[in-house]
């Protein structure tokens, strides 16, 4: 029967304890009972010593190999890849910012990423060394080492200005501080707004917006625009209309810089147009309102949004009101063509043609008016049977007859059922006075 072999560690322990009794027959018997298979007499000691040394060597090396194998296997399994490096680059700036733990900031960042998209990661080379990885940015500005699912900055090169021989302000830390300060001010502004302290809220929103704008990346520019809009609302509460409109216009211009925010920029410009149109004090600037509607219309048309037609209508009506009659006539031509192909806008064609005819009367071109009226009746049957067409016909008849009384009667009759706008009344009064002058001659 083959004797049992002792475990290497057991052998080492026994040899150390009984090293002084190698030649003792009793000692040899103990070894033999453990499976060492030594002779009965202790005179032969070399085989025993040789076998013990083999066991000691084998046990020690085996443990080292096992530990190293486990280490290498674990390191390989947790060797970070390209995707983990991208995530590290996207999140490292936020992790350095002490205010990143703030829940409201995280919420703002989340929505910004939905709207603006993820910031880009610089291009890089990835070298996999089985247990660890080295990444070098293609621009050579930095290199990183990764192991155990973590990335660490290995080296960074500062960019030196070739013109002035001094460092460019990489100021990543400055930008982080500025961004954190902007978020703090925004939250303070929201708190002040909740307490109805609108002056303080407006001031803080403006300050935060300027700081976000200074940081300058897409996400922070969007934050800046939102803060400018909030400042606009706060200024409105304190009746500071000029500052409110200035803040809102800045927001619109920031939205316009991003192709992804064209629709939002258009809505903001439309809101500006409405606000400028509502102003009733002597500082009312309808030219500014027209410009806002024009920008909104161009952006909506660029997006393929059919709502741009409403911006055109606003431009045309305001142009007529401030006396830009030729511009209004051209815009109404475009509007009428568009409306004729749209079932929802078709019923408004008669109103647009009527406004266009009033602009022609303001230009005192009665021949042109007759031609336009004839074309409209032929092209648009809905206009042919309208009160507007009958009214224009009566005006042309009174003009041809040089009869101011008939002219005034036609105006009064129409105004009883459909109220004429102030600018239309002014145009018709001027035309009646011209008729009276001709009648006197």
Automatic annotation (TrEMBL):
<dbReference type="GO" id="GO:0019905">
    <property type="term" value="F:syntaxin binding"/>
</dbReference>
<dbReference type="InterPro" id="IPR011990">
    <property type="entry name" value="TPR-like_helical_dom_sf"/>
</dbReference>
<dbReference type="Pfam" id="PF14938">
    <property type="entry name" value="SNAP"/>
</dbReference>
<dbReference type="GO" id="GO:0006886">
    <property type="term" value="P:intracellular protein transport"/>
</dbReference>
<keyword id="KW-0813">Transport</keyword>
<keyword id="KW-0653">Protein transport</keyword>
<dbReference type="GO" id="GO:0031201">
    <property type="term" value="C:SNARE complex"/>
</dbReference>
<keyword id="KW-0472">Membrane</keyword>
<dbReference type="InterPro" id="IPR000744">
    <property type="entry name" value="NSF_attach"/>
</dbReference>
<dbReference type="GO" id="GO:0005774">
    <property type="term" value="C:vacuolar membrane"/>
</dbReference>
<comment type="similarity">
    <text>Belongs to the SNAP family.</text>
</comment>
<dbReference type="GO" id="GO:0005483">
    <property type="term" value="F:soluble NSF attachment protein activity"/>
</dbReference>
<dbReference type="GO" id="GO:0016192">
    <property type="term" value="P:vesicle-mediated transport"/>
</dbReference>
<keyword id="KW-0931">ER-Golgi transport</keyword>
<protein>
    <recommendedName>
        <fullName>Gamma-soluble NSF attachment protein</fullName>
    </recommendedName>
</protein>
């Amino acid at each position: 029967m083959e004797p049992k072999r002792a475990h290497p560690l057991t052998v080492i322990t026994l040899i150390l304890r009984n090293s002084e009794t190698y030649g003792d027959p009793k000692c040899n018997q103990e070894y033999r009972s453990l499976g060492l298979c030594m002779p009965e007499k202790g005179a032969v000691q070399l085989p025993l010593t040789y076998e013990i040394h083999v066991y000691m060597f084998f046990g020690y090396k085996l443990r080292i190999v096992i530990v190293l194998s486990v280490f290498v296997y674990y390191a390989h399994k947790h060797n970070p890849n390209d995707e983990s490096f991208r995530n590290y680059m996207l999140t490292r700036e936020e992790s350095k910012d002490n205010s990143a733990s703030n829940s409201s900031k995280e919420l703002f960042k989340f929505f910004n990423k939905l709207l603006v998209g993820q910031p880009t990661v610089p291009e890089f080379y990835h070298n996999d060394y089985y247990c660890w990885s080295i990444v070098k940015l293609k621009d050579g500005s930095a290199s990183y080492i990764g192991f155990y699912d973590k990335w660490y900055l290995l080296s960074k090169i500062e960019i030196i200005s070739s013109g002035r021989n001094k460092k460019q302000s990489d100021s990543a830390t400055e930008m982080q501080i500025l961004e954190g300060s902007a978020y703090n001010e925004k939250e303070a502004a929201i708190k002040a707004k909740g307490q109805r302290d609108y002056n303080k809220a407006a001031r803080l929103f403006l300050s935060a917006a300027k700081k976000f704008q200074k940081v300058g990346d897409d996400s922070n520019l969007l934050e800046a625009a939102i803060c400018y809009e909030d400042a606009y609302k706060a200024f409105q509460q304190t009746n500071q209309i000029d500052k409110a409109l200035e803040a809102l216009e800045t927001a619109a211009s920031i939205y316009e810089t991003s192709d992804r925010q064209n629709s939002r920029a258009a809505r903001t410009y439309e809101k500006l147009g409405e606000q400028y149109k509502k102003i009733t004090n002597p500082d009312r600037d309808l030219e500014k309102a027209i410009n806002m509607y024009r920008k909104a219309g161009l952006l909506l048309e660029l997006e393929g949004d059919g709502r741009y037609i409403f911006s055109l209508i606003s431009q045309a009506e305001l142009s007529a009101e401030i006396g830009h009659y030729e511009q209004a006539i051209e815009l109404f031509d475009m509007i009428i063509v568009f409306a004729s192909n749209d079932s929802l806008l078709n019923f408004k064609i008669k109103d647009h043609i009527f406004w266009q005819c009033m602009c022609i009367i303001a230009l005192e071109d009665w021949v042109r008016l007759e031609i336009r009226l004839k074309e409209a009746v032929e092209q648009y049957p809905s206009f042919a049977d309208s009160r507007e067409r009958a009214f224009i016909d009566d005006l042309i008849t009174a003009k041809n007859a040089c009869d101011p009384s008939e002219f005034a009667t036609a105006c009064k009759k129409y105004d009883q059922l459909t109220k004429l706008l102030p600018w239309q009344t002014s145009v018709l009064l001027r035309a009646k006075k011209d008729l009276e002058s001709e009648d006197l001659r």
